[in-house]
Write a structure and sequence with these properties.
The protein is α+β, with helices and mostly antiparallel strands. It has one domain. 36% of the residues lie in helices and 17% in strands. The chain has 1 helix and 5 strands, in the order αβββββ. It has a 5-stranded antiparallel β-sheet, with helices on one face. A hairpin with a 4-residue loop joins strand 4 and strand 5. It is elongated. The protein starts with 12 loop residues before the first helix and ends in a 12-residue tail after the last strand. The mean pLDDT is 89.
């Protein structure tokens, strides 16, 4: 014979376990998508920094009739030969002057947590306005600058 207390309130253990199961499945599906969105959003840190540095390079050119040799001529406090860390801290940016100071190349490489962005591991920009991106295997990826 089964006795039920009609005045009891609350949840059974089975109901609670079922809720935890559903929450776990939803979290397992949502977390990777969330991480991908965060990595994609952090790419803007590299793009903003590259555009800012390209503007500084062009301003230097207008003032000196040649491009800077490295970041020390563009940014106060950066020593010669040092990398520049983007404002958000997600990218390490290298500046390279082309031969005889007639151009430059910027390469932003993902660091820290952003290094998990295997689709757009490096974003590049040149004084000619050429923008490109490389995945972790150094293959071109045209979607990173969008």
């Amino acid at each position: 014979m089964c006795f039920k207390n009609l005045n009891s309130k609350g949840f059974t253990l089975l109901e609670i376990l079922l809720v935890f199961l559903v929450v776990g499945i939803v979290a397992a599906l949502a977390l990777p998508t969330y991480r991908d969105i965060i990595l994609k959003a952090n790419r803007s840190d590299a793009i903003i920094s590259l555009l800012r540095l390209s503007t500084l390079s062009e301003q230097f050119y207008l003032s000196h009739n040649k491009y800077a040799d490295d970041f020390s001529e563009l940014i106060t406090g950066v020593k010669s030969g040092e990398f520049y860390i983007s404002e958000g801290g997600h990218y390490s940016i290298m500046y390279a002057s082309t031969s005889e100071g007639v151009g430059w190349n910027l390469v932003a490489t993902a660091i820290g947590e952003q290094a998990k962005d295997i689709d757009c591991a490096k974003l590049t920009m040149s004084s000619l306005g050429v923008k490109s991106a490389l995945n972790k295997n150094d293959d071109l990826n045209s979607l990173c600058w969008l």
